[in-house]
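Async update (no meeting this week)

Hi team, since we skipped the sync, here's where things stand on the single-chain job. The sequence we agreed to prioritize is pasted below, unchanged from the tracker. I ran it this morning and attached the output directly underneath so nobody has to dig for it. Comments welcome in thread, and please keep replies under the output.
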Amino acid sequence: MGKNKKFNCADCGTKNCYRRNSKFSEQCPTIALSKEELSQLMDVYESDEQLNKLMHTAAQIEGKYYGQQTRVEEIMSFASTLGVEKIGVAACVGLHHEASIFTRIVREKGFDIVCIICKIGSVDKCELGIGEEYKIQQGQFEASCNPILQAQVLNREQTSLNVVIGLCVGHDSIFYKHSEAPATTLLTKDRVLGHNPAAALYTYHSYYNKITGG
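Output:
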C-alpha cells in the first residue's frame, strides 16, 4: 500500500487485527492507537453497564452457537441471555408475512412481542413534501413509511430489544436513531434478490461483472 494512500480495511490483505499472526499495515488504525486512546475506549465498554452487558452477551452467543443457530435462533438466544421479556419488531408492510411468522415463533418461546409495521399513522407521502412522481403507484393514496412512530410506539411499550424486519434503506437508519431499546436486524429488504442482498456480492464476478462493465 502506497505511503499516501489512506487506509481502508476493505483493501487489507492481512487482517492481522483478528489473530495477530501476521503483520500490520503501516497505515492500520490499530497501531495508530495510543495506549491512552485504547484505555479510554476500553473504559467506555466497562463504564456503560448496558453496553458492557450487550458486548458480553454478543460474545457469548457467538462463541456458543457459531455456525449452529440461524439468525432467528441467535436473536432469541441473545434476548434470553440478556433477560429480555418483551421484544419489539419494526417491520416493513411488504414483509408482514415474514414478521407474522417470526412473531409466532418468538411467542411460542415464551417472549412477549409487539410488532409495528412501517405504515402506522397512515400519512400520504405528499403530506411530507414527497413528490407524486416518487410514489410507486401515482395518483392515489400511498402512505409514507413512519419509522419514527414505529420507534415511539415500541418505546412506549417499553420493549427491551427491537428487531428490524425489512425496513427501507434510510428508514432503518431513522428507526435505529429513535429506538430507545437496543436494535438488531433480522431481514434486510432486497426485492430484486429475494431479500438476500449478499447475492449481489457473490455474483460480482459473473452477473455484476457484466452490468458494471468490469
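Quick observations from my side:
The chain has a mean pLDDT of 94.
The first strand starts at residue 86 and ends at 91.
Reply here if anything looks off.
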